[in-house]
Design a protein that fits this description.
Alpha-Beta Plaits, 19 strands, Elongation Factor Tu (Ef-tu), domain 3, Gyrase A, domain 2, six-stranded antiparallel β-barrel, 8 helices, alpha+beta, globular, 397 residues, EC 2.1.2.10, six-stranded mixed β-sheet
């Protein structure tokens, strides 16, 4: 299995370490609930170095990214990012990504831990196909194993960023980044996250003792120093190291999709439109229609034909915890399936995301979830599940 730079620290301090998407990762240190609530009410730090980083360099980098992703990568100035999707030819989501314009014809794509290898192969194959006819000024490099990435999330993340870097992250727009230093260690800091809360993420290169290339292995001195520095500086704010368990419950409370659950490509080769498309997953906001991109034709066809299913959020009315794969019913018939579900640590009720027939994919509809053979009442809602005036990145202070 793959391991992040400071895996040894996690192995020593985490109560549960398990495989996730081919990586051996910390699931929790104290408990999912404790870490979850620390982020909602104070601050937590996640090691997300398992996320992929692919670099694109050269005069043709922007044109290439405009073609292989759905959003308008040309808009944000350096240094800032764009949430964009990578689709296959038949419109399904290969991954959800964040593409940073680094300046000087250089772009860094952040992608999911279980998608970066297939994306790198996908991009290099497209580049190779194009170069049979036209030479590209483009270098594509997978630097996932070289990059450390830490995510600091919660209402106190702003104070911690000021203490560590002298930066008020609230003065940055979402996905804006800055080049910063921490005790001489150069890194990129972006206002971003996957919890629904305000926060920042840092990216920097360091030696990885578990690098697949033996020649690149070494002690992760920078990563360990930065991680422990964040924890020490955050003590006065009650900071907690948080694992992937809390990361999942936090993103679900915020209503965010997860690649492999809500977004995926099923490779349904017998059809001209694959699943799951961004139209089904409520991600049309990440599509810039005024350009050509891979998968656009399939999406236009789906717009004309109508959607076979659509994503909806729901909360349980009856007691019960929904899980992926549970069937959804309404009006006495099956209408879909749950793709993500959990017991909300903040609300104390079951919440989830499902794909259902389009006519049921709107707030305020009573549905039923088949939980271990019993149909439990639920209600479709608009995300986030929490009160955005009390919690989340734009809470009223």
């Amino acid at each position: 299995m793959k391991r992040v730079h400071i895996f040894d620290w996690h192995k020593e301090h985490a109560k549960k370490v398990e495989e996730f998407a081919g990586w051996e990762m910390p699931i929790w240190y104290s408990s999912i609930k404790e870490e979850h609530l620390a982020v909602r009410n104070g601050v937590g730090v996640f090691d997300v170095s398992h996320m992929g980083e692919i670099f694109f360099r050269g005069k043709d980098a922007l044109k290439f990214l405009q073609y292989v992703t759905t959003n308008d990568i040309s808009k944000p100035p350096a240094i800032s990012g764009t949430y964009s999707l990578v689709l296959n030819e038949r419109g399904a989501v290969k991954d959800e990504t964040l593409v940073f314009n680094m300046g000087n014809d250089t772009y860094m794509m952040i992608c999911d831990s279980d998608a970066f290898e297939k994306l790198y192969a996908w991009f290099t194959s497209i580049k190779g196909a194009i170069e049979q006819y036209t030479k590209l000024d483009l270098e594509i490099e997978n630097k996932t194993y070289d990059m450390a990435m830490f995510s600091v999330q919660g209402p106190k993340a702003r104070d911690l960023a000021m203490d560590l870097f002298g930066i008020d992250i609230n003065q940055l727009w979402w996905f804006q980044a800055k080049e910063v230093e921490l005790d001489g260690i150069k890194m990129l800091l972006s206002r971003s996250g996957y919890t629904g809360e305000n926060g920042f993420e840092v990216y920097f290169e360091d030696a990885n003792p578990y690098h697949p290339n033996p020649e690149k292995r070494g002690k992760p001195e920078k990563a360990l120093y930065v991680w422990e520095k964040i924890l020490k500086a955050g003590q006065k704010y009650g900071i907690k190291p948080a694992g992937l368990g809390a990361r999942d419950t936090l993103r679900l409370e915020a209503g965010y999709t997860l690649y492999g659950n809500e977004t995926k490509e099923l490779q349904l080769l017998s059809t001209d439109i694959d699943e799951v498309t961004p139209l089904q997953a409520n991600l049309e906001f990440a599509i810039f229609w005024d350009k050509e991109f891979i998968g656009k034709e399939a999406l236009l066809k789906q717009k004309e034909r109508g959607l076979p299913s659509k994503m909806v959020h729901f909360k349980m009315v009856d007691k019960g915890i929904p899980r992926a794969g549970y069937k959804v019913y309404a009006d006495g018939k099956g209408i879909g399936e749950v793709t993500s579900g959990t017991l909300s640590p903040l609300l104390g009720i079951g919440i989830g995301i499902a794909f259902v027939k389009p006519e049921y994919a709107k707030p305020g509809i009573e549905i039923e979830i088949d939980i271990r053979g019993q149909k439990k009442k639920a209600l479709t809602v608009a995300p986030p599940f929490y009160d955005p005036k009390k919690y989340g990145a734009f809470r009223e202070e």
